[in-house]
Design goal:
This protein is of the alpha/beta class and 190 residues long. Helices cover 37% and strands 21% of the residues. The chain is built from 5 helices and 6 strands. It has helices at residues 20-43, 62-71, 103-110, 122-135, 152-166, and strands at residues 3-9, 48-53, 88-92, 112-120, 139-148, 169-171. Strands 3-2-1-4-5-6 form a 6-stranded parallel β-sheet. Helix 1 links the parallel strand 1 and strand 2 (48-53). The chain starts with a strand and ends in a 19-residue tail after the last strand.
Length: 190
Protein backbone atom coordinates (compact mmCIF):
# COMPACT_ATOMS: atom_id res chain seq x y z
CA UNK A 1 0.00 0.00 0.00
CA UNK A 2 1.29 3.46 -0.87
CA UNK A 3 1.12 6.70 0.99
CA UNK A 4 -2.25 8.01 2.14
CA UNK A 5 -3.72 11.48 1.63
CA UNK A 6 -6.80 13.01 3.22
CA UNK A 7 -9.03 14.71 0.64
CA UNK A 8 -11.42 17.29 2.11
CA UNK A 9 -14.20 17.96 -0.41
CA UNK A 10 -16.13 21.26 -0.56
CA UNK A 11 -16.08 22.00 3.16
CA UNK A 12 -15.22 25.65 2.51
CA UNK A 13 -18.74 26.46 1.44
CA UNK A 14 -20.71 29.70 1.29
CA UNK A 15 -23.98 27.74 1.42
CA UNK A 16 -25.54 30.05 -1.14
CA UNK A 17 -27.14 27.29 -3.22
CA UNK A 18 -30.70 26.01 -3.36
CA UNK A 19 -30.06 22.85 -1.29
CA UNK A 20 -28.10 24.63 1.44
CA UNK A 21 -30.82 24.59 4.08
CA UNK A 22 -31.29 20.83 3.64
CA UNK A 23 -27.52 20.20 3.66
CA UNK A 24 -26.63 22.22 6.77
CA UNK A 25 -27.99 19.70 9.30
CA UNK A 26 -25.99 16.88 7.77
CA UNK A 27 -22.85 19.04 7.67
CA UNK A 28 -23.25 19.75 11.39
CA UNK A 29 -23.37 15.98 12.02
CA UNK A 30 -20.27 15.38 9.85
CA UNK A 31 -18.13 18.17 11.37
CA UNK A 32 -16.78 16.17 14.34
CA UNK A 33 -15.68 13.36 12.01
CA UNK A 34 -14.01 15.79 9.61
CA UNK A 35 -12.27 17.49 12.54
CA UNK A 36 -11.05 14.14 13.87
CA UNK A 37 -9.68 13.17 10.45
CA UNK A 38 -7.88 16.50 10.07
CA UNK A 39 -6.23 16.15 13.47
CA UNK A 40 -5.23 12.53 12.95
CA UNK A 41 -3.91 13.12 9.41
CA UNK A 42 -1.92 16.18 10.49
CA UNK A 43 -0.52 14.35 13.53
CA UNK A 44 0.56 11.47 11.25
CA UNK A 45 2.11 13.94 8.78
CA UNK A 46 -0.21 12.74 6.03
CA UNK A 47 -0.89 15.18 3.18
CA UNK A 48 -4.19 17.01 3.62
CA UNK A 49 -5.62 18.30 0.36
CA UNK A 50 -8.64 20.56 0.30
CA UNK A 51 -10.44 20.37 -3.03
CA UNK A 52 -13.13 22.98 -3.27
CA UNK A 53 -15.59 24.54 -5.63
CA UNK A 54 -14.66 28.04 -6.71
CA UNK A 55 -18.25 29.38 -6.47
CA UNK A 56 -17.88 30.67 -10.03
CA UNK A 57 -15.19 33.13 -8.91
CA UNK A 58 -12.58 32.44 -11.56
CA UNK A 59 -10.26 35.18 -10.36
CA UNK A 60 -10.13 34.11 -6.74
CA UNK A 61 -7.51 32.09 -4.90
CA UNK A 62 -7.98 29.80 -1.93
CA UNK A 63 -7.63 32.65 0.58
CA UNK A 64 -10.50 34.54 -1.04
CA UNK A 65 -12.63 31.38 -1.16
CA UNK A 66 -11.97 30.78 2.53
CA UNK A 67 -12.82 34.39 3.41
CA UNK A 68 -16.11 34.17 1.46
CA UNK A 69 -17.03 30.91 3.20
CA UNK A 70 -16.19 32.27 6.65
CA UNK A 71 -18.22 35.43 5.96
CA UNK A 72 -21.21 33.43 4.72
CA UNK A 73 -24.33 32.77 6.74
CA UNK A 74 -22.92 29.45 7.98
CA UNK A 75 -19.36 30.49 8.78
CA UNK A 76 -19.69 28.42 11.97
CA UNK A 77 -19.59 25.30 9.75
CA UNK A 78 -16.33 26.45 8.15
CA UNK A 79 -14.35 27.64 11.18
CA UNK A 80 -13.70 24.14 12.63
CA UNK A 81 -12.23 22.90 9.32
CA UNK A 82 -10.07 25.83 8.20
CA UNK A 83 -6.91 24.67 6.41
CA UNK A 84 -3.62 25.09 8.24
CA UNK A 85 -0.40 26.44 6.71
CA UNK A 86 0.78 22.99 5.59
CA UNK A 87 -2.45 21.88 3.90
CA UNK A 88 -2.65 21.83 0.13
CA UNK A 89 -5.47 23.36 -1.91
CA UNK A 90 -6.94 22.54 -5.33
CA UNK A 91 -9.82 24.45 -6.92
CA UNK A 92 -12.41 22.48 -8.88
CA UNK A 93 -15.27 23.59 -11.09
CA UNK A 94 -17.35 20.40 -11.30
CA UNK A 95 -18.33 17.48 -9.07
CA UNK A 96 -15.23 15.28 -9.14
CA UNK A 97 -12.08 16.41 -7.37
CA UNK A 98 -10.14 15.04 -10.36
CA UNK A 99 -12.10 16.54 -13.27
CA UNK A 100 -9.78 19.01 -15.01
CA UNK A 101 -7.78 19.67 -11.83
CA UNK A 102 -4.09 18.98 -11.09
CA UNK A 103 -5.02 16.61 -8.23
CA UNK A 104 -3.93 13.37 -9.95
CA UNK A 105 -0.55 14.93 -10.74
CA UNK A 106 -0.19 16.26 -7.19
CA UNK A 107 -1.01 12.88 -5.64
CA UNK A 108 1.47 11.20 -7.98
CA UNK A 109 4.20 13.65 -6.94
CA UNK A 110 3.44 12.88 -3.29
CA UNK A 111 3.53 9.12 -3.88
CA UNK A 112 -0.10 8.75 -2.79
CA UNK A 113 -1.80 5.44 -3.58
CA UNK A 114 -4.66 5.65 -1.05
CA UNK A 115 -7.14 8.49 -0.55
CA UNK A 116 -9.44 9.07 2.39
CA UNK A 117 -12.47 11.09 1.30
CA UNK A 118 -14.54 13.31 3.55
CA UNK A 119 -16.75 16.34 3.01
CA UNK A 120 -19.81 17.06 0.95
CA UNK A 121 -22.00 15.95 -0.77
CA UNK A 122 -22.00 12.14 -0.45
CA UNK A 123 -24.36 11.48 -3.36
CA UNK A 124 -22.65 13.96 -5.65
CA UNK A 125 -19.05 15.15 -5.27
CA UNK A 126 -17.91 12.36 -2.93
CA UNK A 127 -19.42 9.68 -5.20
CA UNK A 128 -17.92 11.07 -8.42
CA UNK A 129 -14.56 11.64 -6.73
CA UNK A 130 -14.50 8.05 -5.45
CA UNK A 131 -15.22 6.78 -8.95
CA UNK A 132 -12.48 8.93 -10.48
CA UNK A 133 -10.01 7.80 -7.78
CA UNK A 134 -10.93 4.16 -8.44
CA UNK A 135 -10.39 4.43 -12.20
CA UNK A 136 -6.98 5.96 -11.45
CA UNK A 137 -6.13 2.80 -9.47
CA UNK A 138 -6.10 4.57 -6.12
CA UNK A 139 -7.37 2.78 -3.03
CA UNK A 140 -10.43 4.63 -1.73
CA UNK A 141 -11.64 5.01 1.85
CA UNK A 142 -14.79 6.97 2.67
CA UNK A 143 -15.18 8.26 6.22
CA UNK A 144 -18.79 7.38 7.03
CA UNK A 145 -19.20 9.91 9.83
CA UNK A 146 -17.39 12.69 7.95
CA UNK A 147 -19.52 12.99 4.82
CA UNK A 148 -22.65 15.12 4.51
CA UNK A 149 -25.65 14.62 2.26
CA UNK A 150 -28.65 16.40 0.84
CA UNK A 151 -30.77 13.28 0.31
CA UNK A 152 -30.22 10.49 2.86
CA UNK A 153 -31.60 7.73 0.62
CA UNK A 154 -29.40 8.75 -2.31
CA UNK A 155 -26.41 9.04 0.04
CA UNK A 156 -26.98 5.50 1.29
CA UNK A 157 -27.24 4.25 -2.29
CA UNK A 158 -24.07 6.16 -3.22
CA UNK A 159 -22.17 4.59 -0.32
CA UNK A 160 -23.31 1.12 -1.41
CA UNK A 161 -22.18 1.86 -4.96
CA UNK A 162 -18.79 3.08 -3.76
CA UNK A 163 -18.30 -0.07 -1.70
CA UNK A 164 -19.56 -2.53 -4.32
CA UNK A 165 -18.49 -0.95 -7.60
CA UNK A 166 -15.36 0.94 -6.56
CA UNK A 167 -14.03 -1.37 -3.83
CA UNK A 168 -14.12 1.56 -1.41
CA UNK A 169 -13.64 0.91 2.28
CA UNK A 170 -16.40 2.54 4.32
CA UNK A 171 -15.17 3.25 7.84
CA UNK A 172 -15.87 5.58 10.74
CA UNK A 173 -13.21 8.28 11.15
CA UNK A 174 -11.77 6.71 14.28
CA UNK A 175 -11.07 3.42 12.47
CA UNK A 176 -9.17 4.88 9.52
CA UNK A 177 -5.44 4.21 9.74
CA UNK A 178 -3.09 7.02 8.77
CA UNK A 179 0.16 5.78 10.27
CA UNK A 180 1.81 2.38 10.02
CA UNK A 181 0.22 0.11 7.44
CA UNK A 182 -1.37 3.09 5.71
CA UNK A 183 1.72 4.32 3.90
CA UNK A 184 5.20 5.55 4.72
CA UNK A 185 5.52 6.94 8.21
CA UNK A 186 6.95 10.38 8.74
CA UNK A 187 8.20 12.61 5.99
CA UNK A 188 6.78 15.97 4.98
CA UNK A 189 3.04 16.39 4.68
CA UNK A 190 3.23 18.36 1.48
Amino acid sequence: MGRTALIVIDMLNTYEHEDADVLVGSVREALPGVGMLLKRARDAQVPVVYVNDNFGRWRSHHGELLEAALAGRYGDLVRPVVPDEEDLFVVKARHSVFFETPLAYLLGQLGVRRVVLCGQVTEQCVLYSALDAHIRHLDVVVALDAVAHIDAALADAALKMMERNMSAELLPSGEIAFGEGAGPAGGPRG
